[in-house]
Amino acid sequence: MTVSVHYFARLREELGRQGEEVALPGEGLTVGELWRHLHQDAPPERLMAAVNQEQASLETPVRDGDEVAYFPPVTGG
């Protein structure tokens, strides 16, 4: 399974990269499990995500070919 992962705003700065293409063994990861796989820790508190440009929860399944985006909560003003 291969997915495209993108990071936005503060996450991009903290991780030092815009994103990555990831080849994963098997199927059946969720958005939260993908974060843990990539970063070896729990997702940051209040992490927001999207799968294929649609808002997603940490329990949303990730499938082969998906585009997953992680970003901090949006603030307005």
Automatic annotation (TrEMBL):
Its taxonomic placement starts with:
Bacteria, Pseudomonadati, Pseudomonadota, Gammaproteobacteria, Chromatiales
Keywords noted in UniProt: Nucleotide-binding
Any one GO molecular function term = nucleotide binding
The name this protein carries in UniProt is: Molybdopterin synthase sulfur carrier subunit
Gene Ontology cellular component annotations, sorted alphabetically = molybdopterin adenylyltransferase complex
Pfam families listed in its UniProt record = ThiS (PF02597)
Q: A GO BP term, please?
A: Mo-molybdopterin cofactor biosynthetic process
Its family? Belongs to the MoaD family.
